């Protein structure tokens, strides 16, 4: 059966797409739409047409899985032009999300009606491309230049009421009567001539808008190619006739889609979705119901973790040892919510709703009512074991017991209970209410349904979750370690912290290893004995150069936390260089990349070799969402593939690293990780 069918309602032809899960505009859908429009045009008894979708959403865009393959006709730009040129009114009836090519179908239609819950967006920029079916030219004409910039260059999605205010939709339908209302609307406007065309709408704008927009978003767009291409296309729409603008858009689209950045960003799109899948657990396994969550510890981590659940409408019992700590933790959560409300992102009512779901307590026995209990206490094996021993006695049968550890052995923690099958790790990243990544650590005995339940719950609290095996530092922190070790060695051989950080920032990271250390705290994991100075870091810590919090770390900081290179740190480094007698040389950018980034790839390969990650793309997801690896480079494993694994191996060999067998094998065979 065709994925597109037509239904006649007297003089109105309804063209319906049914291509689950998201009505992507695949070749079959495009062919079906073309046939539907032709049918409506050819039939004199048809006065107007409606395009709508079955299932959960209007077209979510072009079918991304078709990119990079030969395109089948009709291609989307031709199809949307055909819709606009129909000569009879076409009404797009939107529910769910009209995204990318879906939004372009709506824009090419002569009228748009949507349910109040519908959303509109052109998120192509997030895939490293731009709306390539006239979207950059029609959208500013219909919704104005400013909104078009916001939607195309930033990928902002807008709700139906905003779309109506902007003129992007003509009418709101009833939430449950879209088809009926769309047919009535189509009948109402069926006689209007000429049929209004988005491409012919006059375009007014303030030319200063573009420079302002570029300037305001320079930081956000740093390193990316697609945002500027989107801006340039919208700008072109204001400068040239529609046809020329479309040609310009086409050229820009082709350039982007052939480029490495778009390939990287598309890789991440699919990698993120793949990450939620567990290879050896059936997709339909029965999940354990999670109606109430328990959190032990109301510190920064515990509080952040708790907020994720409250925001998702899941009640939380939070336990602390002292009333003061409990009150402080609760007050910080409230303050965070209120700050979000002050920015207009949530309402005062939502603040109360979330806080109303919180049950603070000093009594650990209250955790007996929880279906999932997450421990966020001090990162120490003995402390964790004691907590889990207690939990084992308190938690109800079937409750999931999770440790928010960032490197400890989850098997050992699980062994301190009589139910290791119910135990796993949930490694949140700080600030836990903001950071998207969650490493779900699967112990040797963790039951399949426990793992699947937590992975599904992660989606509910809007995290991107990745399954990791038990090993020191799991996926993310384990790969961070060789990078830090090499960065320290480079200092001894002649590099400066500023130089190494700059290479990482120029690469696209939000910060370099030393800036990161200053932010996290140079003293994290320090032995706290100022007289025991074995390395440069000990020396910094002994002088209380603990990072940003002390206004001194690897850098000096002013009152606004602006960093500047520290003469004192330079002295300390020099002292250590002299003492060690290490040979000095001029360290190049290339060497910094080869010695700090290549070893991460090497470690990633070992993680795969040992089965601690399910797939290479999971490693990329960890680094994109947990550590700010630039999405336009696709994550460390995708990046290694684009660099060429032979080159990575040669670089590692040059510097005397022991190379992972898997990496070597793939390089020799000319294979890729992703
Ligand atoms: N093409 C192909 N597959 C798609 C797709 C698309 N445009 N959008 C989603 N899918 C797939 C996903 O890969 C996933 O597959 P899986 O089940 O095998 O893992 C499945 O559909 C469901 O997707 P989600 O898990 O993301 O479902 P959600 O309900 O969470 O989200 C959504 C739905 C908001 C529509 C989200 O999928 C999304 O944002 N999709 C991408 C939208 C987009 O970027 N559109 C622009 C495409 S490019 C374009 O249109 C170019 C044109 O201008 C020429």
From TrEMBL:
Its EC number is 1.1.1.35. The keyword Oxidoreductase applies. SUPFAM superfamilies: 6-phosphogluconate dehydrogenase C-terminal domain-like, ClpP/crotonase, NAD(P)-binding Rossmann-fold domains. One of its GO terms (molecular function) is NAD+ binding. The keyword Ligase does not apply. Residues 293-468 form the 3-hydroxyacyl-CoA dehydrogenase NAD binding domain. Pfam families: 3HCDH (PF00725), 3HCDH_N (PF02737), ECH_1 (PF00378). PANTHER family: 3-HYDROXYACYL-COA DEHYROGENASE, PEROXISOMAL BIFUNCTIONAL ENZYME. This is 3-hydroxyacyl-CoA dehydrogenase.
């Amino acid at each position: 059966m065709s994925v597109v069918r037509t239904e006649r309602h007297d003089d109105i032809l309804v063209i319906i797409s049914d291509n689950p899960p998201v009505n992507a505009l695949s070749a079959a859908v495009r062919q079906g739409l073309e046939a539907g429009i032709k049918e409506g045009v050819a039939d004199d008894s048809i006065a107007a047409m409606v395009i709508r979708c079955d299932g959960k959403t209007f077209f979510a865009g072009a079918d991304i899985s078709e990119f990079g393959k030969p395109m089948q006709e009709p291609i989307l730009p031709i199809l949307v032009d055909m819709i606009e040129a129909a000569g009879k009114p076409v009404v797009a009836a939107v529910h769910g999300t009209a995204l990318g090519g879906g939004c372009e179908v709506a824009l090419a239609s002569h009228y748009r009606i949507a349910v109040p819950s519908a959303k509109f967006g052109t998120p192509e920029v997030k895939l490293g491309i731009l709306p390539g079916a006239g979207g950059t030219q029609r959208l500013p004409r219909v919704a104005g230049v400013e909104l078009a910039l916001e939607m195309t260059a930033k990928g902002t999605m807008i709700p139906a009421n905003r779309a109506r205010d902007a003129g992007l939709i003509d009418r709101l339908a009833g939430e449950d009567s879209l088809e009926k209302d769309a047919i009535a609307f189509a009948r109402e406007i069926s006689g209007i001539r000429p049929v209004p065309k988005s491409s012919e709408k006059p375009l007014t704008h303030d030319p200063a808008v573009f420079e302002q927009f570029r300037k305001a978003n320079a930081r956000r767009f740093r390193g990316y190619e697609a945002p500027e291409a989107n801006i340039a296309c919208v700008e072109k729409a204001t400068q040239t006739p529609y046809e020329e603008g479309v040609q310009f858009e086409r050229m820009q689209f082709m350039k982007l889609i052939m480029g490495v950045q778009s390939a990287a960003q598309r890789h991440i799109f699919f990698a993120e979705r793949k990450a939620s899948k567990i290879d050896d657990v059936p997709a339909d396994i029965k999940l354990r119901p999670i109606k109430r969550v328990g959190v032990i510890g109301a510190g920064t981590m515990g509080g952040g973790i708790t907020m994720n659940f409250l925001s998702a409408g899941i009640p939380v019992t939070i336990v602390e040892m002292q009333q003061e700590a409990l009150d402080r933790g609760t007050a910080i959560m409230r303050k965070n919510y209120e700050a979000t409300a002050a920015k207009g992102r949530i309402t005062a009512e939502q603040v109360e709703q979330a806080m109303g779901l919180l049950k603070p307590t000093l009594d650990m026995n209250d955790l007996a009512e929880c279906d999932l209990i997450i421990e966020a206490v001090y990162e120490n094996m003995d402390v964790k074991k004691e907590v889990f021993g207690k939990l084992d006695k308190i938690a109800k049968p079937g409750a999931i017991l999770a440790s928010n550890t960032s490197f400890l052995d989850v098997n050992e923690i699980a062994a301190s209970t009589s139910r290791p099958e119910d135990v796993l790790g949930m490694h949140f990243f700080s600030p836990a209410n903001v950071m998207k990544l969650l490493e779900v650590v699967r112990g040797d005995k963790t039951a399949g349904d426990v793992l699947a339940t937590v992975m599904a719950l992660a989606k509910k609290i809007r995290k991107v979750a990745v399954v990791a095996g038990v090993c020191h530092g799991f996926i993310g922190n384990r790969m961070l370690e060789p990078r830090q070790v090499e960065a320290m060695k480079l200092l001894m051989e002649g590099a400066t912290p500023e130089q190494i950080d700059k290479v990482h920032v120029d690469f696209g990271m939000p910060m370099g290893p030393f800036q990161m250390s200053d932010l996290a705290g140079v003293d994290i994991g320090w032995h706290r004995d100022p007289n025991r100075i074995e390395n440069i870091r000990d020396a910094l810590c002994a002088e209380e150069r603990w990072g940003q919090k002390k206004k001194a770390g690897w850098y000096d900081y002013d009152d606004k936390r602006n960093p500047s290179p520290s003469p004192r740190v330079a002295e300390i480094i020099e002292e250590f260089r002299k003492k060690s007698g290490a040979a000095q040389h001029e360290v190049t950018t290339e060497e910094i990349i080869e010695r700090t980034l290549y070893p991460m790839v090497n470690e990633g390969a070992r993680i795969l070799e040992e089965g601690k990650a399910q797939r290479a793309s999971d490693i990329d997801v960890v680094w994109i969402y947990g550590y700010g690896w630039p999405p336009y480079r696709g994550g460390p494993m995708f990046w290694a593939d684009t660099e060429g694994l032979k080159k990575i191996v040669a670089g590692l060999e040059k510097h005397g690293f022991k190379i992972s067998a898997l990496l070597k094998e793939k390089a020799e065979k000319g294979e890729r990780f992703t």
